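Researcher: Let's do a round of design. I'm pasting the structure tokens now; please hold your answer until I've finished.
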């Protein structure tokens, strides 16, 4: 069936009972006129290069000799500065567990839409589309459960019996990803002259999130975003994408797509690590450094018209009152807390339709 091009055709597009009603609620975004006006050229995504992210084998980090360990640390630090992204194998999370949670995630998202949006499933963490979108490039053709880990631990946290297994799997995956994030953040912090356990202390189970993403097939322009371009509002993200593909990152001012690798987990630097400046009182070396050593890089997800896509993301976040960057020399950013950062992001998304992020806090 050719993709519908007018709002009339759109109504004919039969979404499944579990798909969010994107067409009905956002028809004004997809009507022919809106589409004609919207120049997708700014996010030209037709012919783009596919890249292999830097692939880092973590076995050298834990059981390699000193030389291999140092090489592994250097690979992690270099990729975080040059790409802002890398992928890791021998990360300690079993492929079987990741396959199992994708099965349960699919079963969970395939519940009727009304059930997902109406009930308190996963503590009202459900979100879909983008209610403030006024144009296609502010819209995300996806649905997600953005779950605070603190809620995952709560007994009886609005889980229906038939999804107890999903909750248990989420706890297992969150636990493993937390451990991996702590190790990687420790390596990156130490490379900045900071205590290795700085993040273990400022990011606890109560401040981090696990996000389940589903990207339904999209029958409209192949340039519709599954998730609009953004940088992550955290220190570090650990991401498992399934075999479908669609994730792209900005590299040398061009979008490049990231080839799915079922054995690997993707790691990307968030805004907070880019702005991070080790509090001087625990700076362990006189390394001359400032912020922006590691790069929080813009990325997006593109839809496809054929198959749904799933991903699961772990966000390493500090407590709301954590100070991210002091304005002491040589910081490029004024002093701000995570709470101020998130509030500014939400205000910008509401008023402009886009996240502005770190540039709001430049000195
Ligand atoms: C890490 C995150 C940043 C984000 C919320 C999220 O937890 C995952 C998606 C991100 C995104 C992408 C589109 C928008 O820019 C945004 C405001 C949103 O609604 O989801 C950002 C979020 C953010 O920066 O807070
Ligand atoms: O689904 C993906 O591959 C990326 C998701 C993402 O960027 C996010 O949840 O912040
Ligand atoms: Fe992201």
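Researcher: That's everything. Go ahead.
Model: Designed sequence:
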């Amino acid at each position: 069936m050719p993709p519908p091009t007018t709002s009339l055709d759109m109504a004919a597009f039969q979404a499944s009972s579990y798909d969010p009603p994107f067409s009905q609620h956002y028809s004004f975004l997809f009507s022919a006129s809106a589409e004609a006006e919207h120049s997708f050229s700014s996010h030209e995504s037709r012919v783009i290069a596919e890249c292999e992210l830097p692939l880092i084998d973590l076995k050298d980090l834990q059981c390699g000799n000193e030389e291999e360990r140092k090489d592994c640390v250097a690979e992690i630090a270099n990729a975080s500065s040059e790409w802002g992204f890398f992928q890791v194998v021998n990360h300690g999370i079993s492929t079987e567990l990741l396959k199992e949670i994708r099965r349960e995630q699919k079963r969970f998202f395939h519940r009727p839409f009304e059930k997902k949006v109406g009930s308190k499933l996963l503590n009202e963490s459900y979100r879909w589309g983008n209610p403030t979108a006024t144009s296609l490039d502010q819209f995300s053709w996806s649905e997600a459960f953005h779950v605070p880990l603190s809620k995952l631990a709560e007994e009886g946290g609005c889980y229906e019996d038939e999804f107890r297994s999903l909750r248990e799997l989420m706890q297992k995956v969150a636990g493993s990803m937390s451990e991996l994030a702590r190790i990687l953040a420790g390596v990156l912090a130490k490379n900045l002259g900071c205590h290795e356990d700085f993040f273990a202390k400022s990011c606890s189970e109560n401040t981090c999130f696990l996000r389940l993403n589903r990207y339904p097939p999209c029958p409209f322009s192949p340039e519709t975003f599954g998730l609009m371009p953004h940088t992550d509002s955290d220190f570090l993200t650990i991401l498992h994408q399934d075999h479908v593909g669609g994730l792209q990152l900005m590299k040398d001012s061009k979008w490049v797509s990231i080839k799915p690798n079922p054995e690997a987990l993707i790691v990307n630097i968030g805004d907070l690590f880019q702005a991070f400046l080790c509090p001087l009182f625990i700076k362990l070396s006189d390394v001359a450094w400032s912020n922006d050593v590691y790069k929080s890089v813009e990325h997006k997800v593109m839809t496809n018209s054929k198959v749904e896509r799933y991903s699961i993301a772990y966000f390493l976040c500090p407590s709301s009152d954590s100070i991210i960057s002091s304005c002491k020399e040589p910081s490029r950013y004024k002093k701000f807390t995570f709470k101020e950062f998130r509030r500014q992001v939400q205000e910008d998304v509401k008023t402009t339709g886009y996240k502005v992020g770190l540039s709001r806090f430049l000195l």
